[in-house]
Design a protein that fits this description.
single chain, about 290 residues, alpha/beta, TIM Barrel, eight-stranded parallel beta barrel, two-stranded antiparallel ribbon, 10 helices, about 15% strand
């Protein structure tokens, strides 16, 4: 399994060359999730992307041993403002169109909510919103199938339209398309109350058995459709709520359990570190090599 990175966790850069050379100092060959405008704010707006520009981005990265595993284009496909939603969908479609220039078929997004900023709104889980989401996905799939790209969806518990592995399976079964796949983030899919033990309790640090049960339940539903893994961690705050944006080694989940299950299920896809800290990244890579 290839260990890679989310590019903008390294900060913001004024050029692709600076980004690529920085990544190369940590790993000679690696894959990244690239949200171009996040990591290089001076890059053109999506409407101004040209094949020549995106190809130059790809080539510069490759000169430093870096390739794109996921084109990050995180939109709100159920944005309550139709004009804003249209802009989001067009942005995603443009990235699909340029997938060959990026050197990557997979364009990834989370699944949005009934709030513009994707925060919690109970209306997100009503069938009307789910139908709107399916309509957006259907449109993106038509484009993906036309150009040979793949729409990749990432679920987020509690607040996003697709908040569980079961709801993700429902989407996959609705379309049954080879152009629709999954980014699996076990921390995003963890309940905001943490991982339950067998007796229903929630410990500050879940047991290996509890982690295994939770991840196995997800993989039973999603394994064949996973094309990338996001790796980070969580802790519980003083009120027992999940803080789910911790670097992999600064949380309570034992990732050796997850790696073992990925091997058991035969999942050999890029594992992209999220919320990483460059100051501790070398230590994290050594840890991952050991498990």
């Amino acid at each position: 399994m290839e260990i890679g990175f989310r590019a903008h966790d390294f900060g913001k850069f004024d050029s692709v060359e600076s980004l690529a050379s920085t990544i190369e100092t940590y790993k000679k060959r690696s894959q990244i999730q690239l949200a171009l405008n996040k990591v290089i704010p001076s890059s053109p707006k999506y409407s101004e992307y040209t094949p020549e520009y995106i190809s130059s981005v790809r080539d510069t990265l490759r000169e430093h041993g870096v390739s794109v595993a996921i084109i990050g284009c995180y939109i709100n496909p159920v944005h309550p403002d139709p004009s804003a939603r249209e802009d989001h969908l067009r942005r995603f479609e443009r990235n699909l169109e340029l997938h060959e220039e990026f050197g990557c078929r997979y364009v990834g997004t989370e699944t949005g909510s009934a709030n513009p900023d994707c925060s919690y709104n109970p209306l997100t889980f009503e069938e009307e919103n789910f139908s709107l989401f399916l309509s957006s996905v259907e449109r993106l799939l038509r484009k993906a199938e036309d150009v040979g790209a793949v729409v990749t969806l990432e679920a987020v518990s509690r607040q996003h339209t697709i908040c569980s592995a079961k709801r993700m399976r429902r989407v996959l079964d609705t379309f049954r398309s080879d152009s629709l796949k999954v980014i699996y983030d076990p921390i995003n899919l963890t309940s905001w109350l943490g991982i339950e033990e067998e007796d229903g309790s929630v410990r500050e640090k879940p047991s290996k058995e509890a982690v295994g049960r939770a991840v196995r339940a997800d993989l039973d539903l999603l394994a064949p459709d996973i094309v990338a893994i996001h790796a980070k961690n969580y802790v519980l705050d003083s009120n027992g709520w999940k803080i789910g944006n911790k670097p992999l080694m600064e949380g309570v989940v034992d990732w050796s359990v997850i790696f073992s299950l990925l091997r058991e299920y035969g999942i050999d896809v890029p594992i992209l570190l999220e919320n990483l800290k460059p100051s501790t990244l070398k230590e994290t890579l050594l840890y991952l090599d050991s498990i």
